[in-house]
Amino acid sequence: MNYLRENIMSENKVNKNTESRKKGKKKILPKILIALAAVVLLLIVGYIVYTAHMHYDIEPHESYNMADLGENVAYSDVFYTNDISPEGLWKAYEALGATPSGNVAIKLSTGEAGNPNHLDPQLIKELVQSVDGTIVECNTAYSGSQRMETEMHLQVAKDHGFTEIADVDILDRDGYMVIPVDGGKNLKENWVGKNLENYDYVITLTHFKGHPMAGFGGAMKNISIGFGSSQGKVRIHSGGKLKKPTITLAALTTNQDIFTESMAEAAKSVYDYMGHGERIIFINVMNNMSVDCDCVSTPAAVDMADIGIFASLDPVALDQACIDQVFAAQDGGSLQERILSKNGLHILKHAQEIGLGNRAYKLISLD
Question: Does residue 20 surpass a pLDDT of 60?
Answer without folding.
Answer: no
